[in-house]
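Task: sequence design from structure.
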């Protein structure tokens, strides 16, 4: 990959069950010069598709805008059900600076994409995280509160006028949050119980907003097909709060309910450093650094 500038994008689409639709949504990311599709994963319980791609700014912009158009055409949120909160057919589009790019450039790209999708698809857009135009818009959970159903009235409030597009919820595609942010790790921990109330209580206890771990957002999710529940976590800065800390705190909180952890999963891609940090903790490695990782040295 000989690109001079690389930005990562991780768009989340509100479709995790219809494989034909998923294939159509992902198609604009395939075979494009200046864009590389790294990964995509769909979850039927969440009814959500998470795509990870990297590219040069201009090429990335074109591919993302095209994919948004496909999603707007295919997804009707009036018919959508799932465990994950959502306010749009394309729920959120984050841009992350990776190589030879600054956060300011990622912000600029997010605004460019926001303007294009608003104009082309009549889609209301909220800028969030580093791109936010006001402090109360930085947190995605705050922007998304009320979800698709509640956004019809919320968007009429003066403090929730969209940054781009009409001040009216799209009738089928809802609204979208677009912004620039640091790398995020989507990390889910599965519990040996089908009691959603327990998973929700654990999630509340570990997340920062309720006095838990800094840089951790969490919610309880029911996985009906597996007859278990899950603590679904977003680690917004893995360099400040490591994955193993979230794992261990969930384990501690679960004990009070007589519940155990039965597994965990990473959604999308994860920085190598995040996994090395966790491995170092559990193996008790002393003075271990990324410079001792074979693959890291090869890629230098």
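Answer:
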């Amino acid at each position: 990959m000989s690109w001079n500038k690389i930005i990562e994008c991780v768009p989340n689409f509100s479709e995790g069950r219809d494989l034909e639709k998923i294939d159509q949504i992902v198609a604009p990311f395939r075979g494009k010069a200046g864009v590389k599709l790294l990964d995509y994963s769909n979850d039927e319980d969440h009814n959500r598709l998470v795509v990870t791609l990297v590219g040069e700014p201009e090429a990335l912009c074109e591919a993302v805008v095209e994919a948004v158009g496909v999603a707007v055409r295919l997804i009707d949120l009036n018919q959508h059900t799932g465990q994950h909160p959502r306010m749009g057919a394309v729920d959120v589009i984050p841009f992350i600076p990776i190589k030879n790019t600054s956060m300011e450039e990622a912000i600029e790209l997010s605004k460019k994409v926001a303007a294009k999708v608003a104009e082309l698809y009549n889609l209301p857009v909220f800028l969030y995280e580093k791109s936010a135009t006001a402090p109360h818009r930085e947190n995605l959970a705050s922007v998304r509160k009320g979800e698709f159903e509640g956004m019809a009235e919320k968007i009429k409030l003066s403090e929730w006028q969209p940054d781009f597009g009409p001040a009216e919820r799209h009738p089928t595609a809802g609204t979208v949050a677009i912004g620039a942010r640091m790398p995020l790790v989507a990390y889910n921990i599965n519990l040996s119980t089908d009691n959603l109330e327990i998973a929700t209580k654990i999630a509340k206890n570990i997340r920062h907003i309720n006095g838990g771990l800094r840089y951790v957002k969490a919610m309880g999710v029911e996985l009906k097909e597996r007859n278990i529940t899950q603590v679904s976590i977003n680690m917004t800065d893995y360099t400040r709060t490591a994955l193993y800390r979230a794992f261990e705190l969930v384990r501690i909180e679960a004990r009070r309910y007589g519940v155990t952890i039965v597994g965990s999963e990473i959604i999308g891609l994860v920085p190598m450093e995040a996994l090395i940090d966790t491995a170092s903790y559990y193996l008790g490695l002393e003075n271990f650094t990324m410079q001792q990782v074979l693959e890291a040295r090869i890629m230098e």
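The domain at 185-298 is CATH 3.30.70.670 (Alpha-Beta Plaits).
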